[in-house]
Design a protein that fits this description.
six-stranded mixed beta sheet, single chain, elongated, alpha/beta, 3 helices, 34% strand
Amino acid sequence: MLKKIVFISLVIAALSALSGCAVNRASASITPDTDLKAMKTFYVVHREGDKHDTDQLIKDHLNKKGLAATTGPELPLPYPADAVVTYIDKWFWDITMYMLELTINIRNPSDNFPVAVGNSYHTSLTRLSPTEMVDEVMTNIYKQAK
């Protein structure tokens, strides 16, 4: 009887410990008056210190959608594009480095006001490749467009 109680307690403890390891969250929002479909050219700002080329992945995603996108450093306003894209990528070590969270902002090129934002958060057990994270965030942003 005691062995059975100990075994059940260990199983419950193990399941409780593992349940917090699998987090999968994705969201997006867009300001009501924003017409993403009218935006055809994008300038993706390379985040200083980014060693993972996330800006290139965002640019590649936009190019695959048939949109013109370039990358480069932060510039003074206004930007030479229909929209400016900024991002924050968070990386985590769990046996290997992986992208834990990605937030992408699409901004007005004249005043840098965010007109759309998307976020993806995946812990180790539900991790995605950086390309998949970019695809998930951008797809969710464009799903919000009318």
